[in-house]
Amino acid sequence: MDDDKEQRELQERVMRYRVMEREVTDPLAIGLLHDIVTELEAALEQPDRYSCKSPAAISDCRAKRKY
């Protein structure tokens, strides 16, 4: 059940970042938000990795799960 909750939370985060990406006007911010959305969507596609809490932590989680 925790996995379902974590996945829903991650889906909500993706939606929030997508909204921000559409609303922001700064080109650099748009690019950064797009990268964040891309990483979060990749985490959603791999259910064993969606417990990562931040885009920066995704690579850390991947490294930890290899062991």
Short overview:
This protein has one domain (2-65). It is mainly α and 67 residues long. Helices cover 75% and strands 0% of the residues.
Jot down its keywords:
67 residues; mainly alpha; 0% strand
Shape: elongated
Poorly predicted segments? none
Q: How would a textbook summarize the main sheet?
A: none
- Oligomeric organization of the protein chains: single chain
- The domain count comes to 1
Question: Roughly what fraction of the amino acids lie in strands?
Answer: under 5%
SSE pattern, N- to C-terminal: HHH
Class of secondary structure makeup: mainly alpha
Count the helices. How many?
3
- Average pLDDT level: 80
Percentage of residues in helical conformation: over 70%
Integer-rounded radius of gyration: 13 Å
Instruction: Report, as a whole number of angstroms, the end-to-end distance.
Output: 24 Å
